[in-house]
Amino acid sequence: MTEATRIEEEAGVTTPWSFIGSGFLPWLLQRVTAIGLVVLLPIHIVINHLANISKVEEGVLPGLVVFSDVMERFESPAYWVVDVLLLSFALFHGLNGVRNVAIDYGLRGVGEKVFTGALSLVGVAAFAFGIIALAAFID
After folding, report:
1. CB of 113 within 8 A of CB of 63?
2. Which residues contact 14 (CB under 8 A, 6 or more apart)?
3. 136 or 7: whose pLDDT is higher?
4. What are the Cα distances from residue 48, in Å, to 7, 87, 138?
5. Cα-flanking dihedrals φ and ψ of residue 101, to 5°?
6. C-alpha span between 79 and 98 (Å, rounded)
7. Domains of the chain, CATH where assigned
8. Backbone dihedral angles phi then psi of residue 49, each to the nearest 5 degrees
9. DSSP-based three-state secondary structure for 104
10. Cβ proximity of 40 and 78 under 8 Å
11. I want to staple 130 with a disulfide (CB 3.0 to 4.6 A). Which of 37, 58, 59, 87 is the partner?
């Protein structure tokens, strides 16, 4: 915090954008990703796990999730968009949730920055791994 910001806070000076602090963006993105997950997760479950039930019952497919079936679905750009959004929303929501718990338990200052940085690295690595895993389905 700069000296000017500290003096303004002590004096009670506010601006129209004062509510946008260091915690506002993570707070907002936590809500946005929650809504995204509520929308995307049922789509993912229906397409990946429930759409093939009749084919399995008829004996056309050996199981609910079949590699060739997944490859066929990945030919659609919409399927890629849903899966990449689901991956990114789930990672951010989960890792930011862990960060929020640490902050609630008193993590502040340099420790908060280091922990947030470490979680960010884990998130980037997990996202890259997830994209590589999804790319395995490219024909």
Report:
1. no
2. none
3. 136
4. 56, 15, 17
5. -65, -45
6. 29
7. 23-135 (1.20.1300)
8. -120, -30
9. helix
10. no
11. 87
Nearest CA among 119, 49, 114, 115 for reference residue 91: 119
Tell me the pLDDT tens digit for each residue of 25-49: 899 999 999 999 999 999 988 888 7
Q: How many CB atoms lie within 10 A of CB 33?
A: 21
Amino acid at 132: I
Contact indicator for 87, 130 with CB cutoff of 8 Å? yes
What one-character DSSP code corresponds to residue 18?
T
Greater confidence, 135 or 22?
A: 135
Which amino acid is it at 22?
S
C-alpha to C-alpha distance for 19 and 100, rounded to whole angstroms: 18
- End-to-end alpha-carbon separation of the chain, Å? 52
